Amino acid sequence: MVTLTYQERFRTAKGVFDEFTNRTLFVLQSRGIFDELESPLFIGKESNVFIAKKGDKKIIVKIYRMQNADFKTMYDYIRKDPRYVFLKNHRRQIIIAWAQREYQNLKKAEKIKISSPKPISWKNHIIVEEMIGEPAPTLKNQQPENPLKFFNEIIKQVKKMYDGGLIHGDLSSFNILNLNEKPYIIDFSQATLVKTPNSKELLERDLKNVLSFFNRLGIKAELEQTFFKVTGEKQKNG
């Protein structure tokens, strides 16, 4: 049972997180979602990702920045999602909705059995999710031993997402983990529904990024063929 005081729990965070973030972290910790933040994993432009302890396990805590995040770009993306047509152009509302949408995307990915982190909890601008591996390296940092097999598995995952009504929207070698030669897709912050007006454009971009990476490894797949394999449709400009 955790008996640390608030000050002890967040001694490393004091002076780093704003009060809103501190309060949100405290709520999540008080609910037993995690025991304590352990160490930073990744510091990005929009969010900071931490490893946290939960009993004898480690999990991921992703914290979106309330002040520094580019909420205008977030709004341009999220306002096209039919789930968020009601959203107004307000910084805090947009960032919280952005985090909520990522959590909902992770839940949808789990439901359709995508190889991705399982969502654990969400509150305001903070998402808690499963950690893949210890953690597993990105595809960018660990190329597969069998590129063709790995590529085909990624395309299967993309098709499964598409059939389940979801498009990742930011797929690249940075957002695919290589865990024991199996791909895991992460970072669903830009994922959207297939019925979103620009979803096919986002899918094409995802596929171009994947093809570009694997072309350098000798896999000569074509965009038009891969797009058809995923969607069963020809590209509009194809």
Tell me about this structure.
There is one protein chain. Helix 3 crosses helix 4 and helix 5 packs across helix 7 (223-231). Residues 1-15 have low confidence and may be disordered. The chain has 2 domains: 6-130, Phosphorylase Kinase, domain 1 (2-Layer Sandwich); 147-231, Transferase(Phosphotransferase), domain 1 (Orthogonal Bundle), CATH 1.10.510. With 238 residues, the protein is of the alpha+beta class. The strands form 3 sheets. It has a 5-stranded antiparallel β-sheet with strand order 1-2-3-5-4, with helices on both faces. The protein is globular and about 50 Å long. The longest helix has 21 residues, at 91-111. The chain contains 7 helices and 9 strands.
What is the β-strand count? 9
Mean pLDDT: 91
Percentage of residues in DSSP E strands: 15-25%
**Overall 3D form:** globular
What is the oligomer described by this structure?
single chain
Per CATH, the superfamily of the largest domain is Phosphorylase Kinase, domain 1
Number of domains: 2
What is the ordering of alpha helices and beta strands? Answer: HHEEEHHEEHEEEEHH
Q: What is the terminal separation in angstroms? A: 60 Å
Q: Supply the CATH architecture of the largest domain.
A: 2-Layer Sandwich
Helix content: 25-40%
Which structural class fits the helix and strand makeup? alpha+beta
Counted by DSSP, the helix tally is 7
